[in-house]
Structures are given as C-alpha cells and as structure tokens.
Amino acid sequence: MNIREIYKKQHKSESTDLGLLKGVYYDHLKELSDRHDIHSYYGLEERNKKVDIRYYVDHCFRGSRVWILASVWYENQPVMIIQNAGRDGDDHSKRFITDAKLYKEMLSYIVSLMDIDTSAIEEVNVDMNMPELTNFYGYDMSYVESVFD
Question: Is the whole model's pTM more than 0.85, yes or no?
C-alpha cells in the first residue's frame, strides 16, 4: 500500500487534539520540541480549527500497548502519515511528511495557538557597562584568556 492509498482510505475516527502528536519519547512535530515542553500541544483542541488527525487503526493490545496508523491534515489537505506502537506509542514512532510546505505552514499555525508568556522577558541596554557579562562562575574573561588561550 502506498501513502496516496492510505490518504484515500476511510478513517475510523478523527481528533483535533494536538497533544496526541507528542508523547514522552516521541514528537511528530519535532521541530517544535526544543521550543516547547511535552504539554504544550495539550488543551488546544478547542482553539484548533485547521489541524485534523485521522485514525485508520488505533488499537490497544493490553493496557497501554498500542498500534496506531494515522494521517495529519492541515486545512483539509494531507500533510503526513504517522505511526506509533508499543507502550503508550513510545516504543515506535515514525512520520512520513508528504508536503513540506504545508507542514511548515501547519507548524506556524500551531505556534500561533499557544499561549507563550513573554511578560518575563527582560531587555538589556547594549551600551550598559555590565561586569557580570565577563565575570561569572568564579572566573573573569581576562583571566581565562590569559591562562587558557
């Protein structure tokens, strides 16, 4: 079976819960992994109006052992196929992106849904004299340069 055939297949269920795209040991949106913690995608299903996860198989063997084959759609266009298997889907995960341009648009959309607190960001004056800039962790820049360079 090829990807086009899977996209055409009737899905058994669907979800707008973006939290399903990230587990403890996998992230189908790994480009966002460094920027956001594991819970970042959860709770966005009410606000998410453009991303759909369509499940063709979502089987749980025993307790938390799963075998999942699904596709991710953005604005009703297919973006990628995703797989998860094993304990909570963490033992095996893989993605097959079929439209990189649309995938990037989808990432931007997902980031726009997140409430990222920027109130604690402090801006520093680039012209302000700051001794702590070159003197930290018990060493001064001039000492380190003279000894180790």
Answer: no
